[in-house]
Specification:
There is one protein chain. With 189 residues, this protein is of the alpha+beta class. The chain has one domain. The protein is 24% helix and 42% strand. It contains four helices and nine strands, in the order H-H-E-E-H-H-E-E-E-E-E-E-E. Helix 2 packs antiparallel against helix 3.
């Protein structure tokens, strides 16, 4: 009788295990990526609440220009950083996080790379101060195509100081253009 009960319990346990393997419910997403979107929103608000002189220096195909920016123009340009959010569940599953402690810079670097080279966001590096865990810098690299045109972009945000957006455009027929944009509100040279 005892053997019969053990046999029934064993069969029941195997059936439960099999049911779990074939469940259509995906496992809960428990991974926590750095809240980069929140960081950028806070930085935009930081500038909006202060009376910084904001200016942009642009270099397009070797021609340099500089202009003063309104807070609205600043916010519009800075909002492009928000478009590279990888924390949405359907996007997040494409990326892997790694952590590196860099003693030479006193930083902890969080790195996000996709497993698929077709992803628009190719790399994100977030440098955190090793003592405060506050963001020092953010680097984002994107790559995408529109028709026969290829775009490669580098984004660099220096916390509470400035940001850069650099873009290279290439076409299959040989056209090539580079554009460098430096937006500064609190960075001393």
């Amino acid at each position: 009788m005892g053997t019969f009960v053990l046999l029934i319990m064993g069969l029941f346990a195997c059936n439960n295990h099999t049911a779990d393997q074939h469940s259509s419910t995906p496992p809960a997403d428990t991974a926590k990526f750095f809240p980069l979107r929140t960081f950028f929103k806070e930085q935009i608000q930081y500038v909006d609440l202060r009376n910084f002189n904001i200016y942009r220096i642009s270099v397009k195909d070797g021609k340099k220009d500089s202009v003063s920016l309104s807070k609205e123009a600043f916010a519009s340009i800075a909002a492009t950083f928000l478009t590279h959010d990888i924390s949405a569940p359907q996007v997040k599953i494409l990326y892997q996080e790694s952590v590196f402690h860099d003693l030479s810079t006193g930083s902890v670097t969080l790195n996000y790379k996709p497993g698929n080279s077709d992803a628009t966001v190719q790399n994100i590096d977030i440098l955190l101060d090793e003592e405060t865990n506050l963001v020092k810098r953010v680097f984002i690299r994107t790559s995408y195509n529109k028709g026969d045109t290829s775009f490669a972009e580098q984004y660099n945000w220096k916390a509470n100081k400035s940001f850069q957006i650099n873009r290279t455009i290439s076409t299959k027929n040989g056209y090539h253009s580079t554009e460098l944009n430096y937006i500064n509100w609190n960075d001393k040279p």
